[in-house]
Amino acid sequence: MLPYKELARLDKLIHEPARLSILTALSACTLAEFLFLQELTGLTKGNLSCHLTKLEKGGLIAIDKHFVRKKIPQTTIRITSEGKAAVENHWNRLEAIHEAIRKQGANSDRRNASGE
């Protein structure tokens, strides 16, 4: 299969840029607070909340909402083991596709240089 076609077969739940950013950030830590993720990703509260809901429904993250000192709401997010495996697999697939495309281009360059 052509590597370009593989790009269309990537998991869209993970591949969407904001969700890929969220999952990649979460894969580097144990858990993160909502406001930290918002700052890190540059998403609005509503946008981040929407993406987190989709990721939670997909079983890729777990969200915990609680109150600190009975008054201050705090939302923490952690990546699940399924989510960690999924985002790692996604990055590996992207790298493999990229490498296949680079090799295809290198082979094309050699054919063109030899006058084929």
Structure in words:
- This protein has 116 residues and is an alpha+beta fold.
- It has one domain (3-111): Orthogonal Bundle (Arc Repressor Mutant, subunit A).
- Helix content is 65%, strand content 16%.
- It is built from six helices and three strands; from the N terminus they run αααβααββα.
- A three-stranded antiparallel beta sheet has the order 1-3-2.
- Strand 2 (61-68) and strand 3 form a beta hairpin.
- Helix 3 (17-27) packs across helix 6 (81-113).
- It is elongated and about 65 Å long.
- The mean pLDDT is 90.
- Residues 19-97 form the Winged helix DNA-binding domain.
- This is ArsR family transcriptional regulator.
Short account of what is shown:
The protein has 116 residues and is α+β, with helices and mostly antiparallel strands. It has one domain (3-111): Winged helix-like DNA-binding domain superfamily/Winged helix DNA-binding domain (Arc Repressor Mutant, subunit A, Orthogonal Bundle).
